[in-house]
Specification:
single chain; Four Helix Bundle (Hemerythrin (Met), subunit A); about 65% helix; two-stranded antiparallel sheet
Length: about 270
């Protein structure tokens, strides 16, 4: 059957018309769920349910750690997903912890309180922006500064532990108020330092491991389940100060301490700036 000029022209127009770009649903579902965790935490803090606010942040952490892995496993990485992940992180690990700690303790300090909360929030924003721009030149084994989920775990984990001990608010308890103030400033400022924090990205889950490793993981889950607030907070306190220990050790040994690589092809130890 011969094609008419009109049909040929229509086919050409259809071929020239740009196809609509779709959005991969699976990894973005995890990102949206993490965003919901941060939003849920803010709502719970506004209703003085700081225990549930902490649970929301920790659930957001778990979901945030999964969306990138799911995207890589299913080959569904996209620029949209990367931008969505950053925006979700800013809400769940930047704005939400700052608002939660302000409601729990810092509002009793007046201007000092909201300034500390803003330092944390702006530190998270700056850290995320720097992470996105330096991703190609940073040694993959380390984070440049404290990662925002760990910073959120430090601040919100402290609130969760105190709430579990019966302190429903700290605005009228001096030692708790100033403790929350100091921890908020520490987390916010450490996010924008150049201190190296181990990223665990070189840990492969595809290789076989000794049986004792599986036993240790099972014991770890059991320990967390025994008392989640205290165990999780202790773990993140250790991690939150580990970067300075690594920095001091490498500095004392005369080894490179910056995670910015000279070469973008092989950001290994020999290629790091001092």
């Amino acid at each position: 059957m011969n094609e008419t000029p009109e049909s040929v022209e229509a086919l050409h127009e259809e071929a020239a018309r740009p196809r609509r770009k779709g959005i991969y649903i699976l990894p973005n579902l995890f990102t949206l769920a993490a965003l919901f965790g941060g939003f849920y935490a803010i709502v719970m803090a506004m209703n003085d349910r700081f225990d549930l606010a902490a649970v929301g942040i920790f659930c957001a952490m778990v979901l945030d750690s999964l969306d990138g892995r799911v995207a890589r496993m299913t080959n569904t990485q996209s620029t949209f997903g990367e931008q969505m992940d950053s925006l979700s992180d800013m809400v769940s690990f930047g704005a939400a912890p700052a608002l939660i700690v302000y409601e729990w303790a810092l509002k009793g300090l007046g201007k000092l309180g909201w300034i500390a909360a803003f330092v944390y929030c702006s530190g998270a924003a700056l850290r995320l922006a720097r992470f996105n721009t330096n991703i190609s030149v940073v040694d993959k084994r380390f984070f440049q500064g404290l990662p925002s989920p760990a910073a959120a775990a430090l601040v919100v984990g402290f609130i969760w532990v105190m709430d579990d001990l019966g302190y429903r608010g700290a605005s009228r308890i001096d030692w708790l108020t100033w403790g929350a103030f100091a921890l908020t400033l520490y987390a916010g400022l450490t996010m924008v330092t150049n201190v190296p924090f181990y990223s665990f990205k070189d840990v492969s889950f595809r290789h076989s491991v000794p049986f004792v490793v599986v036993v240790a993981i099972a014991l770890g889950f059991a320990l967390i389940a025994y008392h989640p607030p205290v165990v999780l907070f202790v773990l993140f306190v250790v991690y939150g100060f580990s970067g300075y220990a690594v920095y001091g050790y490498r500095k004392a040994k005369g080894k490179p301490v910056s995670v910015i690589a000279v070469s973008t092809d092989e950001p290994d130890e020999q290629g790091l700036h001092r």
